[in-house]
Design brief:
The protein is α+β, with helices and mostly antiparallel strands. It has one domain: Pemi-like Protein 1, Chain: D, CATH 2.10.260. The protein is 32% helix and 25% strand. A hairpin with a 3-residue loop joins strand 3 and strand 4.
Length: 69
């Protein structure tokens, strides 16, 4: 669902094993394919972020820069 100006939200169910399916629209948008690796970041206050492989390096650098400050 397009929430606002390039921002999207999807509702998914978590199965008994803690798994969920990334919606097809999101998989297509972010070019996720079977066997791809993703990075899952968690922040107790802000929630979870899932990053495709091509964005991981960029965000890891940002995280470590913020930690050093």
């Amino acid at each position: 669902m397009n929430v606002h100006d390039g921002k999207y939200a999807w509702i998914v169910k978590i199965g008994e094993k803690g798994q969920f399916v990334i919606p097809k629209e999101a998989r297509d948008m972010f070019k996720f394919h079977p066997g791809d690796e993703i990075l899952v970041l968690g922040d107790e206050k802000r929630g979870i972020a899932i990053l495709p492989k091509d964005k991981q390096k960029e965000y890891i650098k940002k995280v470590f820069c913020e930690i050093e400050e």
